[in-house]
Amino acid sequence: MTLDVDFGLQRGELHLDVAFAVAAGETLALVGPNGAGKSTCLAALAGLLGIARGHITLAGERLDDPARRLFVPPASRGVGVVFQEHRLFPHLGALDNVAFGLRARGSDRRSARTAAREWLRRVGLERHAAVLPRELSGGQAQRVALARALAAAPRLLLLDEPLSAVDASARLLLRRELRAHLAAFAGPRVVVAHDALDAFALADRVAVLEAGRIVQAGTVAEICERPRSRYVADLVGTNLLRGTVHDGVLRVGDGGTLVVSTPHEGAVIATVHPRAIALFRERPSGSPRNVWSAPVVGIEVAGDRVRVQLAGQVALVAEVTPAAVAELGLARSVAVWVALKATEIGVDPA
After folding, report:
1. What pLDDT score was predicted for residue 167?
2. DSSP string over 55-92
């Protein structure tokens, strides 16, 4: 039951033009900056927005094809949607919210409520059957919305930032629970995620949207190891440089140079993991091919590491331990020596 899409649409200043496929039992995460078109893409898949060209095909059935004047309305698509705002009916308890989709598809009240109670049990909320949405936590509301979407036995499951309303203390547990529920769903799944950890934890593959276009797609490992844009590099926490290589020397846009270990010549994209960068207060001796002085322009704590932003002709972000920050006396405007081995610079043709 594959989802196959290749479509374009215009919405305000956004021109969305995407093509991708999602296999049965596979989760694709759509990530990208605000305004890139992630939620717009989901709305088109759900039939809430019409497309201007191309097609949306699910299990061999065309759901949307303007050239053939074909459009299947949302209620007939077999698509389950979990919206960012959950969109639960405020006057109905959790049980009746879940049962609503089944009633809308023709089930009688008794059988719908029986099935809804089973779904509440699956998401751990059977005791909250009569609780109104305003009395639920963000995580509980998310579970009710997921149960409502799954109860209707959809062919395709769409989730728009499903963990955005969950506080940090509950996020880890709910992320794990959501992944388990997704794994139990046999059809294709598409998840919009703003947080990189959510995307990487939930998805089998990731597609990066920027300005309405997919600029990179692949497995989590491929995205992390070979980012193809500044946004993706920032998303995965690595450094990305664009430049040209000649005789083993990479020249970047600001005039800086780095010695690299690569057979490539010409335009390239280079990546440097922040932990591969060593910092010193005095010029180091040893084997690194790249050693230069740079000012510290920013320091940010990130978990058990500290990210140090370096300026100069080759602007990079290094990661060090809190102990190293204290030992080196790192602070804004402090000059440090930077050392980077040529073999630690990944280089790919642009």
Report:
1. 67
2. EEEETTEEEEEGGGTEE--GGGTTEEEE-TT----TTS
Contact 308, 247 (CB under 8 A): no
Looking at residue 233, what DSSP letter applies? H
> What are the tokens at 189?
């799944």
Q: Which phi and psi (to 5°) does residue 94 adopt? A: -55, -45
How far is the C-alpha of 1 from the C-alpha of 189, rounded, in Å?
11
SS3 of 248-284: CEEEECCCCEEECCCCCCEEEEEEECHHHCEEECCCC
Provide φ and ψ at 47, rounded to 5°.
85, 10
Q: Is 165 helix (H, G, I), strand (E, B) or coil?
A: coil
Rounded-to-integer distance, Cα 198 and Cα 191, Å? 10
3-state secondary structure of 289: coil
Give every CB contact of residue 304 below 8 A, 6+ residues apart in sequence.
321, 322
Mean pLDDT, residues 50-69: 96
Mean pLDDT of 115-121: 91
DSSP 8-state secondary structure symbol assigned to residue 291 = E
List Cβ neighbours of 8 (8 Å cut-off, separation of 6 or more). 15, 16, 17, 18, 51, 52, 53, 54
State residue 102's pLDDT score.
87
Task: Tell me what the mean pLDDT of segment 180-196 comes to.
Answer: 90
Task: Decide: 147 and 116 in contact? Cβ < 8 Å.
Answer: yes
Give CA angle at 241 (301, 334), nearest 5°.
Answer: 45
* pTM assigned to the model: 0.77
In contact, 174 and 124? CB cutoff 8 Å: no
Structure tokens at 30: 């759509």
Distances, alpha carbon 341 to alpha carbons 263, 336, 348, in Å: 16, 17, 17
